[in-house]
Amino acid sequence: MFNGGSAQRLLASMPPRLAGLVERQAETAPDRPALISGDRVVTYSEFWQAIGRAKALLTAAGVVGGDRVMIVNENSIAAVTFIFAASDLDAWASPINARMSSREIDACIAYCGCRIVVYTIGDSQAASDHAARVQARPHDDPVFGKVAFGPTDTDARPEPVHAEKDRQTAVLLFSSGTTGAPKGVMLSHQAIMYMGGNMAELRNITASDVFYNITPVSHVIGLGAMLTTAIWAGGTSELVAQFSAANFVAALTADRITYVMGVPTIFARLLEYARTNSASLRSSRLRFIAVGGMPLDLTLKAQIEDAFGLELGNSYGMTEIAPVTRSRGATIGRSVGVVQPGIELRIVGDDGNDAAIGQKGEIWVKGPNLMLGYYRNEAANNDVRRADGFISTGDIGSMDRDGNLSLVGRTKDVIIHSGFNVYPVEVEAVLSQVPGVALVAVIGRSVDGNEEVIAYVQPAAGRQLDIAELDAWAKANLTAYKRPKEVILTSQLPIGPTGKILKAQLKADLVKAVKD
């Protein structure tokens, strides 16, 4: 069993830098497949050699340790290669999703002061469009394919370089959650490797496992919980640039994959596809499915487990520290499982003291995978840092006697209606139980010194919903102050690149509607 002592062993077994994991596999199993993209298969030996060539290209472009290298990408061999190459030069790899707008990408480039931007033009039309905008210089490689290099910023200032793996930034990931402007999260080589090694050991990942990586590698799940986990164990990652339910079912039917993890909305789309196309989600080879990144509705959990014939793993974490918990077999209620080895967690009440068993409080965490901080944002750092090295997650939860953590909501998402706290996740869970409901998002609407509960509901494909039925269900299952003042039916909730519902957009739409 992996425990605290094993956590120390895990830390001691890490190479000095993230790319050292690839080098290990290239030395011990050079011909084993490391990456798959479409019909391309790259062995660990080829992967390691490609990293070397990418390092040479970056060095020739003027990249030095401490520089920021932005990688505008969708999941691809090129994206992964340059993440490992840049970080192995002690530069900070900063992968961002190519499907972001030009305005958003330009803001990220300016924010982090990149030395250079790499565009994965061979695998992403969106990246190619961004590259054309700046007349990026193309390059073709036999393994990672076509990329393009933007102009070198000779005025970029490198950050200090540290020999220690727990002090040197490996990646700069942008985190906006669903509520605000992006923040650059600095993650060390140790933090990324701890994610991978921890998950590999706890979930008994082996070299025979094939991960279906549908989460962007610009996201902590895609990079840490998926890609690095597979590499740690010598497994294979199938990199999926854009999710397609049909392609996923084809991979299942071909018994090609063993492991998949994504946000709950991805699994909801798979269930909908299976229903409308009479498709099976069973596979003799698939052995592990898991969700993370957003709250999991219990009704959806049961539906997923029934469709796949597997227990659904659930975990809790965030870009700043992931994973924090994991489920161990069947979970109870809204539990996201027990605290991961090596992680310390507190439930802190309003009085600043630890909350009693079963009582709600703010979740504070620390561990070997904790971020180094938010880049160039001391106000945000000061906002989350707490005594003894903890950070406040902004999430509200409770712990039972067996150590199971349950999430209640986010402090910033709490709706205060007539002086009572309403947690959106609870209302969403209730409305999701109505037959024909695909997705629910609950937000607050400010009115005359109060807040109203507003529920957006997306019907499943081919289903029609009756607002009166939803209101009646809420009345039967929620106390009066928690019931939605208004239920808004929508054919499509706004979904971000990682599959999260964009509640900030819904709130903006509400404000606009009031002004209009």
Automatic annotation (TrEMBL):
<dbReference type="InterPro" id="IPR042099">
    <property type="entry name" value="ANL_N_sf"/>
</dbReference>
<feature type="domain" description="AMP-binding enzyme C-terminal">
    <location>
        <begin position="426"/>
        <end position="500"/>
    </location>
</feature>
<dbReference type="InterPro" id="IPR025110">
    <property type="entry name" value="AMP-bd_C"/>
</dbReference>
<feature type="domain" description="AMP-dependent synthetase/ligase">
    <location>
        <begin position="23"/>
        <end position="375"/>
    </location>
</feature>
<protein>
    <recommendedName>
        <fullName>AMP-dependent synthetase and ligase</fullName>
    </recommendedName>
</protein>
<dbReference type="GO" id="GO:0031956">
    <property type="term" value="F:medium-chain fatty acid-CoA ligase activity"/>
</dbReference>
<dbReference type="Pfam" id="PF00501">
    <property type="entry name" value="AMP-binding"/>
</dbReference>
<comment type="similarity">
    <text>Belongs to the ATP-dependent AMP-binding enzyme family.</text>
</comment>
<dbReference type="InterPro" id="IPR000873">
    <property type="entry name" value="AMP-dep_synth/lig_dom"/>
</dbReference>
<dbReference type="InterPro" id="IPR020845">
    <property type="entry name" value="AMP-binding_CS"/>
</dbReference>
<dbReference type="Pfam" id="PF13193">
    <property type="entry name" value="AMP-binding_C"/>
</dbReference>
<dbReference type="InterPro" id="IPR045851">
    <property type="entry name" value="AMP-bd_C_sf"/>
</dbReference>
<keyword id="KW-0436">Ligase</keyword>
<dbReference type="GO" id="GO:0006631">
    <property type="term" value="P:fatty acid metabolic process"/>
</dbReference>
